[in-house]
# Entry
Amino acid sequence: MSYTLRLAVAGDMAEIMRLERAGFAAAIQETEHTFAERLRAAPEGCWVLAGEAGRLYGYLCAEFWPLQTGVDPARFARDHAAAETHDANGEEVYISSMVVDPATRGTGWGRRLFSDALAAMFARQPRLRSAILIVNPEWQAARRIYQAEGFREIGEIAGYFAAGDGARLPAIVMRRPQT
# Structure
């Protein structure tokens, strides 16, 4: 099957939420309100992998932030308001969320979505100098994609992710400077 990478639109919300529920445990899913607000605040950072008949096979949401050194955990709060953090003139892409439909996992489409969406944002916004994200330490496939794309670990945020046994796992913060 072929897919098209395109900017998300409001009409994609039901499919984005389907993907969110399929891709993340309930404890870390974000709300429809959060995604709608991201799309309004930072439409140039919301991308989807579209198939036939309106079905989506992945999404990537991002904001542009002022470039800062170090790791400020408050910037990475789940369900934060993108309207308060997004800066259209920012120099760093914060990849806030990405999911690939479980039906396409292992096919290479996740890496393609990630790579192509990032490339498109950097091409459209020449002021961008860096990209940053957080990842669960247990998500090895995602970490491999990020490392292959030039991201390196720069820190951790303690207790960010809920684990199945009630424990809390850190979020690993990764950054890639634009070359």
About this structure: Residues 20 and 29 are 6 Å apart (CA to CA). The two ends are 33 Å apart (CA to CA). The mean pLDDT is 90.
